[in-house]
Amino acid sequence: MIAYVVRRLLLSVPIVLVASFVLFLAVRETFDPLAKLRQSRDPGVLERETVRLGLDRSVPEQYVLWLKGFLTGNWGVSSRTGEDVRTVIFAALGPTLQLITWGVLFAVVIAGAISVYSATKQYSAGDHVLTTLSYIGIALPAFWFGLVLIQLLAVLPRQWFGLDEPPLYFVGLHSPGRTGFDLDYLRHLVLPVLTLTITLVASWSRFGRASMLDALSSDYVRTARAKGVPRRQVILRHAARNSLAPFVTVVALDGALLFGGLIVTEQIYSIPGMGRLFLDSLLTGDVFVLLPWMLVVAVAVVLCNLLADVGYALLDPRVRLR
Amino acid sequence: MSADMGTVAQMAEVAPAQVSGTREVLRRFVRHRLAAIGTVVLLLLVVACFGASWIAPYEKGAQDLLIGPTGPSAQHPLGTDELGRDYLTELLFAGRISLAIGFFVAVFATVLGTAVGAIAGYRGGALGELIMRVTDLFLIVPGVAILALALEGLGSSPTTIVLVLAGISWTYIARVVRSQVLSLREKEFVEAARVVGASTTRILVRHLLPNLAGLIVVNISLATATAIIVESTLSFLGFGVQPPRTSWGNMLSQAAGLVGTEQVYLLYFPGLFILVTVLAVNFVGDGLRDALDPQGKQL
User: Fold this and answer.
1) Which end of chain A is less packed: N or C, by CB atoms within 10 Å?
2) What's the whole-model pTM score?
């Protein structure tokens, strides 16, 4: 297993490298790293910066130079804020990881519960309702859902009940001056987490229902029932456990999608995470942040994919990773 | 989304399909109730949007500054915006761009993906491997990020949007087609064709392509749905269709600031149009899949 993980990690290095080179080219072609200095009155500053950043060399050389800096922890300085890029990105990772953790936790629990319910009560009224909802969830533009949520769950209740504060907040993760895990934090979390996960809950529950149905109609479940194992135990121990493996794979492979969703979610709820950082950097042409951002996300996604395979092997002993 | 920006769960649902008799397929499709409803809704939407010049209650962009923004009423079923423009009219005209972008992205992505996947699968070897590694690249950076970057760099005319979106959505269908072709190429009928001297091109086009027809049709419908959502998301973030052109996505992004104001109805309707369209397209896709692949699992 360890050998497998190491080999997979080594194998993904070239993919990430090629991706980083392509992204480097794309970003270099799109943006002028010196755009901000072009209006400068000091004629020497352009040349000095060109030399300092190595922009007078060939593009492959520039890439190698940049990559070297990245690997040695020298990520450069943001042209938008003048801060150290590494500090900026690690600061942005905080809120983002919180959203991802709560989001995945929420989505897995809800989607899992729906899957088990829908599959064991196939074609019941509840199943029909949930299936319909999952169709709608998949067809929803998530950002619109987020905006409508603000209106329906924060703005309207506040007007109706004449409250001073909305019941659920929609700006940031904490009220100013507060930190830590408290009611205030939870009231900030509900809307972003719902927005981030609506599509995932819908599609994971559909997938989970299908794989649960598969398991329920299998021979080992029939055997267990014939032996007189209690129904509850058959469903949870035998069927659910076995349909967990493909489910985990799907969850882990949707990692890249989650980062995409973060861009929208953090924009709507003004959360200073990776998604916001990406948009702000893109709109100001801050190449010094964009490149490390892409690379950090790419590595995260590669790790997610690896996690998917390892998780599959852990849950399904028939799978041997070599 | 794209199919490749779609969640993995959605992808897993695209089952390989086999065409068996057009009549039979048609019968099964019509009997699929949701698919039939989806088809009707979609047809209505397409007719209403592309025939908007005749159907829409008002002229496109006709302003009535005196009434300003008003809620839904008998004269203006979906209300009016801040310039007094009839919102239903605006939505129908905007739908043209949204629907067209969705459709063309799906078609281009599917054509490209099928071609690449078929070649990679049939030829195999180093070329096939190389192509598959290229599709890997697309999996590790979020699609929305690549799209935003590309549109920021290339500008966002509808044509560019279609090309860029198709440019990153083809990888999913390429993977599916490749895996299908990998198994199809070992079949007797392909071997027979090779023995009688058919060229690679002929085998691909005359023998393999018809066997992929179901897969291709289903993918076009699902990719259309995805592309419509992605376009609206990009417009919301400011990288999609730019004013004065209108799409459902950029109408939504203009209405985004109206949360909590009196004019919040302007936010509801474009989203509902997108939702209904995507639902209808998905139902049609499901119906097609079931009709083309009777053995397939019903999800």
Assistant:
1) C
2) 0.86
